[in-house]
Amino acid sequence: MQKLRLKVYICSPYRDNPEKNRQKALKYCRKAFEEGYLPIAPHVYFPQFLDETTEREQGLEMALQLLLECQEIWVFGPEITEGMKREIELAKKFNIPIKCFCFKKVEQVKEILKGSVVQDAQE
């Protein structure tokens, strides 16, 4: 068996444009995989069996449970949605390291990382 991969939670927009954002999330998962991580992206998986209009809250609650099993959270911009804010706040509460990608404004990254364990920003 190969070395176990660290689990990284993929945090990125979804609701405003589900299909486009799903495709982006798949690319982010591929990036994590290629860097040796095991990507966890509930917003790619859960819409396969949950109804976004009536079961969104249950999906977010399950996603937050998965986040607690991850060693890092990777936040992809350029904007932060309400759902993403919940994920980021939980990561901070449980000292899960945060990495930020695809943000155009440094101020956004600083706000996200404020009070977090690891302050890391990437292109």
Protein architecture, described:
The chain is α/β, with parallel strands linked by helices. It has one domain (7-121): Rossmann fold, CATH 3.40.50.450. Helix content is 46%, strand content 16%. It contains five helices and five strands; from the N terminus they run E-H-E-H-H-E-H-E-H-E. It has a five-stranded parallel beta sheet with strand order 2-1-3-4-5, with helices on both faces. Helix 3 (52-67) runs parallel beside helix 4 (82-93). The longest helix has 17 residues, at 18-34. It is globular, with a radius of gyration of 14 Å. The chain starts with 6 loop residues before the first strand and ends with a strand.
Q: Which key features would you list for this structure?
A:
alpha/beta; Rossmann fold; 123 residues; 46% helix
Q: In CATH terms, what is the fold-level topology?
A: Rossmann fold
Strand content: 15-25%
Give the strand order, joined by hyphens, for the main sheet: 2-1-3-4-5
CATH architecture: 3-Layer(aba) Sandwich
DSSP strand count: 5
Distance between the termini: 33 Å
SS field, number of helical segments: 5
Our count of domains comes out at 1
Largest sheet: number of strands, sense, barrel closure: 5 strands, parallel
Could you name the ranges where pLDDT drops below 50 across 5 or more consecutive residues? none
| DSSP helix fraction | 40-55%
CATH class: Alpha Beta
| Overall 3D shape | globular
Series of secondary-structure elements, N-terminal to C-terminal: EHEHHEHEHE
Mean pLDDT score: 91
Rg, nearest Å:
14 Å
Structural class: alpha/beta
